[in-house]
Specification:
Radius of gyration of chain A: 15 Å
Number of helices of chain A: 2
Strand content of chain B: 25-35%
Oligomer: heterodimer
Strand content of chain A: under 5%
Shape of chain B: globular
Helix content of chain B: under 10%
Structural class of chain A: mainly alpha
Distance between the termini of chain B: 68 Å
Largest sheet of chain A: none
CATH architecture of chain B: 6 Propeller
Number of strands of chain B: 18
Largest interface: A-B, 15 and 27 residues
Largest sheet of chain B: 4 strands, antiparallel
Shape of chain A: flat
Helix content of chain A: 40-55%
Order of helices and strands of chain B: HEEEEEEEEEEEEEEEEEE
Strand order of the largest sheet of chain B: 1-2-3-4
Number of strands of chain A: 0
Radius of gyration of chain B: 21 Å
CATH topology of chain B: Neuraminidase
Order of helices and strands of chain A: HH
């Protein structure tokens, strides 16, 4: 946080993905999917 | 002396009361009639109506219980509201001109009306009853679902399994726009800026497609993207396609 208070601040995601209602209700979590995809990509590097 | 103090106190009390009635604060949950002439609002736990041009507000409910979140039917003849007269909030309907309220829902969780269906046959309401089994959204008591119930009462069905508030429906009855809920955002907190703030969310129901399972929003695609400038987090919004009800009404 570089000396700043954490209050009223949030961790900004590196990759922003919106979970969409219809897809969530259908059983998919797009944010998890994006996270797994990115981590696998980093493993490959 | 004591009498005088009491008398002065009574006068002061009346005066203060008079002032507060002339310019009441904390009028909440406003809802304007389809013809634009009348506004419903909640004040101290009852629902009042007042001409949109101003004037004297008339209470539509006078019970000991708490009534709020009034919404109009699209023909302006009925209103739906939430009341906790039997312990927790349930959905009621009554004539817009006043009269006897009819209880529509009986679940032990709070049920808050959002709007009427386009044909005024159903009331759409939010409640945390039960997600569809496949829903992956974080399961908490604030992540409600949207349901519908007939204005004459009867069985409740789920419309979508994700939170939907301030719901508006188009006249064809195949599109909804609403505010989503992403997490523990305080509705009354001002100037909250974070990823948890709610966004307007349009949803469209394409009628030719029949649902695989009745009432279950299975899949969605986004054929077009709509970018709303000035939104709370300037997000990209999508038009969601979800499966409609088998009988063709939301």
């Amino acid at each position: 946080m570089n000396g700043e208070f954490a209050e009223n601040k949030q961790m900004e995601p590196d990759i922003k993905v919106r979970n969409e209602p219809g897809i969530m209700a259908g059983g998919r979590d797009q944010q998890i999917e994006a996270a797994v995809k990115e981590l696998l990509r980093q493993l490959d590097e | 002396m004591l009498k005088r103090i009491l008398f002065s106190g009574a006068i002061l009390f009346l005066a203060l009361n008079g002032i507060s009635n002339d310019s009441p604060l904390w009028l909440r949950y406003p809802s304007i009639s389809p013809d634009g002439n009348t506004i419903l609002f909640n004040y101290k736990g009852d629902i009042y109506k007042v001409p949109a041009t101003g004037g004297t507000a008339i209470p539509l409910t006078v019970s000991e219980s708490y009534e709020y979140s009034a919404v109009w039917s699209h023909d302006g003849r009925q209103i739906a509201f939430a009341s906790n007269r039997y312990g927790n909030f349930d959905v009621y309907v009554m004539p817009a001109s006043g009269g006897e309220a009819e209880r529509l829902t009986f679940h032990s969780t709070d049920e808050i009306p959002q709007t009427f269906s386009a044909d005024n046959r159903f009331v759409l309401f939010s409640a945390c009853r039960q997600d569809v089994v496949t829903n992956v959204q974080y399961p908490t008591g604030i992540m409600s679902e949207l349901y519908r119930v007939s204005v004459t009462g009867g069985r409740v069905s789920q419309v979508i399994s994700t939170p939907a508030f301030d719901v508006q429906i188009n006249s064809a009855g195949n599109k909804l726009i609403f505010h989503d809920i992403k997490g523990f955002e305080d509705n009354w907190r001002k100037h909250h800026t974070s990823s948890v703030t709610r966004d307007p969310m349009p949803i469209s129901f394409p009628w030719p497609i029949r649902p695989r399972t009745e009432g279950r929003p299975l899949a969605c695609r986004f054929p077009e993207q709509v970018r709303l400038c000035g939104g709370r987090d300037r997000s990209i919004l999508h038009w969601y396609l979800v499966f409609p009800w088998e009988d063709g009404a939301i």
